[in-house]
Structures are given as structure tokens and as C-alpha cells.
Amino acid sequence: MTELSGLTAGTKCSGCGIVLQNESPDHPGYIPAQALERTPLLCQRCFRIRNYNESSTVTVDQSEFLRLLGQVGEQDALVIHIVDLFDFHGSVISGLQRFVGNNPVVLAVNKTDLLPKVTNWNKIRNWVQKEAKELGLKVEDIVLCSAKQNTGFDRLLDIVGSMRGDRDVYVVGATNVGKSTLINRLISDYSDLEEELTTSRYPGTTLDTVNIPLDDGHYIIDTPGIVYESRYTELVNKQDLAAIMPDKPLKPLVYQLNEGQSLFFGAMARFDFVQGGHQSFTFYLNNRLKIHRTKLERADELFANHAGVMLAPPVKADLDKLPAWTRHELRILKGKPTDIFISGLGWIKANSTDGALVAVHLPKGVKVMMRPSLI
């Protein structure tokens, strides 16, 4: 990251200590040009916390984030791991347990507002508990919550209050999971910022953790959001991000398919029903994303001729910036309720008890996997 021109090399934020830069608002140390005349110099993140009691998300790459996590295990801390229910397997931090040591972990599962209103929440909680265990996570408690609807956060705050004791609280998560909303609630409930910040400097590291002082002398440690490039949401531009990230409860779409049929989700992905008896598949995707059905034998030609135009988003210019598509062949076992999960895009539930052979085409690197059905 290039440092600011016109300042002494290595000029740091007086709040968290990060080296300042003005090229990327989403990266640590960003300060807008109009803020250079302020005294003291604060990065945008510290400025928002100090003046508005609000935290904003910045990001670091995976290697930097893992080095940061390695410091957590050396502390006596409470860890809040926030994940996105819509993108659970894409946003969970794999290997977290190796880094946090014996520190207790609370799993905050955000964006429950996106699931259909008839959802059985006890089943969802049991599903999360089972999948977390499969991933090697040891959690003290699981909280289903919605930052958008402000539900579940009171319970999470109660858990933090009862568990943290003499500990600092680390909040960790991937990008776009709602971490800043949680940080802001913790700030408003636990920190007398105006009094604390007039007398003390925000402690931080060159990785841009921000230690937000609590009333009892401990801290909320706001960590940068980790970027997982296996999530579709990290590949697309902001305009197309709105097309794949839902902001309303999902309305599942059920398609009755015969062997040899294909479905395009705009030009984001393609689903082939390669082999199996007539059966239905339920699609849990952003309803803004248009689905186009065709014959499998015509799918390659259709994509070649219409990708980025009839099949959109993304438009042709943005499609050309994405990695080339790769094909994933998946066999759905008989009598086993299964989701085909596409990180950042949604999932497809196989409804038949007869089994099927399917294929998913996606930009290379996007995570696709089979999992037990969420719903």
C-alpha cells in the first residue's frame, strides 16, 4: 500500500498506530485527503469510532489475518466469531481453533432475516451446531441474530456480559458478515468512549486492530475483516454484488427438471442435471438473479453467444474480468437431503430420494460443496 504523499514516510494514525494511506478506503490506514488538516491525524476507522461511536470494516489478506489470530491464543480473551448464515461455509474461519487456544468462542450467526419466514429455528440452530463441530470449532454458545432487524443481539450482549469476566473481547469475521454492526452495539453498551478517548490513545497494531476501551479497563478488539477469495462476493463489482447478495427474505424457487436440462443464473453460474429421474430442485438465491432454462446440449453455445447480454449479470465487460469457468461434477446420494452450496451465491436443495448426477459451472476458485440440507 502506497503511503500518503506530502507526509513524512511512515506517518501513523494517532489512534491505532497504523501507517496512513489514501488509496484504498477498504484497507487499513485509509485517511481521506480532506482529513489531512485535522489534528491529530486519524485513519477513517478511528475517526468514526471516536466521533460517531461507529466502527467500519477494513480488510487484510488471509496471511496477515492468520498472523493476527495467532496473537489471540496468547491472550486471556473471549472470542466472538461472527458468520453469515446465507454464506455459512464461505464465511466461517477454518482452523480458528488452532489460533485461539483455550479461549472461549461464541458463534454469532448473522443474517437470519434472509431465511424464509416459515423456517424452523430450532432445526437451524441444530444444523449450525453440527456443522460447526464438523469444521472443528469448539463453541461455548451459538446465537442466531440479524443485524438488519436487530434481533438476537440482546442475547449476544448478555452472553458477553456473563462470560467475559476480566477478559478482553476479540471480534473476528470475514468481510460482509455484519461485524461492524456487532462492534457498534458492543461500543454503545459497554464503552464510555467520550471519557476514555480524551485521555488515552487507541492502542493498535500494524495490522490495524483497534482496541476500543471499556469502562473496566479492558478492551473490545476490533479485527480487520478477512478476505476469502473463494467467495463469489469477493470477485464481483459493487453493482453485481447487489444482484447476488439478498437484502430480503429468500423466496425459494422450485424447478422440476428432466435429465439433460441446464439452468443459468444470469451469467454467474450454470447448473446441469446430468443424470437421474425426473425430480425437483429448490433454489435459494437472490430473487433479483434471473434464471434461464435450456437443454444441456445447447448450454455451451448459449453461453458463448449470450453471456453478458441476455445472460446477465454480469455484463460482458465485467464477465471478462472474472476467472474462466470450471466444471464441478457432484453425485447426490439416494435418500440423503443435500444442498449444493456455492459460496456467496446461495445453494440448491436436491429434493428427490432417488439420487442424481449434477454439475455446477463457476469461475475458477469459487467454493462449491455438498452439505446436509439447511432447510
UniProtKB/TrEMBL annotation:
Residues 62-229 form the CP-type G domain. CDD domains: YqeH. InterPro entries: G_CP_dom (IPR030378), GTP-bd (IPR006073), GTP-bd_ribosome_bgen_YqeH (IPR019988), Mito_lipid_metab_GTPase (IPR050896), NOA1/YqeH-like_C (IPR048422), P-loop_NTPase (IPR027417). It comes from the Bacteria. This is Ribosome biogenesis GTPase YqeH. It comes from Paenibacillus bovis. It holds the Pfam family MMR_HSR1. GO terms for molecular function: GTP binding.
